[in-house]
Design brief:
This protein is an alpha/beta fold. The chain is 40% helix and 19% strand. The radius of gyration is 21 Å and the shape is globular. Bound molecules: adenosine monophosphate.
Amino acid sequence: MSFKDLSLSREVLAGIEFLGYETPTPIQREAIPQVLSGKDLIAQAQTGTGKTAAFGIPLVERINPSIKGVQALILVPTRELALQVSEELRKLGKVKKLFVLTVYGGKPLQKHIDFLKKGLNSIVVGTPGRVKDLLGRGYLKLHKVRYLVLDEADRMLEMGFIEDIEEIISATPKDRQTLLFSATFNRVVTNLAEKFLKEDYGIIKIKPEDPTLESITQKVYQTSEKGLWEKLIRLLQAAPDSKTIIFTHTKREAESLSVGLREQGFKVEALHGDYPQKKRETILRKFREGVFYILVATDVASRGLDIRDVELVINYRLPKDSDSYIHRIGRTGRAGRKGTAISIMTDSERRYLSTILKRVKNRVEIYR
Ligand code: AMP
């Protein structure tokens, strides 16, 4: 199946070509026709499955650039994701000349207000806090919204955004189309769906054995507590200049590892939730551009991180569960490229290994 089989306009097909996508991913194959048919939808899918374009393509198709005002609102948990989603939508909507405004906390409010006053924003992508703020002050008007997307809904709820989200949704017209994307489903997510989606909503589940994992070679190395650091150094030396993300459990560990590695001569930066947003953006931009090539990150900081050419992911110690494992290793092997994921496991962590790998269908080599 190709994108041409999905009844898309020439303009949108050009946007897809501009992004370099050749064939739709499973979630895109399922979601695009349903969204185009006007159905509400809940979709269970992780980052890395192509979920952004799964809602982005049909939205850009449906939005009319000659209508002033916000026609689509996309709520996302973090600034990083807001920026990524916006960039993809901008490329998709380039030929149609759609204007995408990204709003998130930390940026001067006035800038967002100035853009909103111009009234050219077909699509607004934002974090719930800032969207609510702009709505409350009367600058953001949502009465023309026809499409509402809740992206990474589980994560937004975990972060305590439920009240903001409900308030925002209540400000949009009832006959809008609502799409809810979530990596996991629990009662809170389902309740949200039941409350705000039309009764006949469609459900899409993309299984964890999504094709993107196929392109990742997975290895586990077992070592003693004492041997951890040395193991890490040897792994890095064996992959010189490879764009690498090292995952740690804590911010402290991320800091101390990056300091230690820098002393060893590696070009490295840490990334974690304590850094102000500006600093995080700068670090990510430099990593993307290759100014340095090793990023030491915590799970939280890496949520939704989409850097296409990451070649190696190292779990400095095993992640806490299989969701986290899949999320972490999915930072590599993106957009059709090959990647390697290496987990270092200390002797005492051995008993967690099977739990962590339980959702992984492909082969994992274990070295002792
Ligand atoms: P997402 O799940 O939206 O975070 O997308 C994961 C990655 O896959 C991103 O780097 C996208 O640019 C890329 N991607 C999305 N759809 C396709 C496609 N149909 N073909 C190739 N790459 C894609």
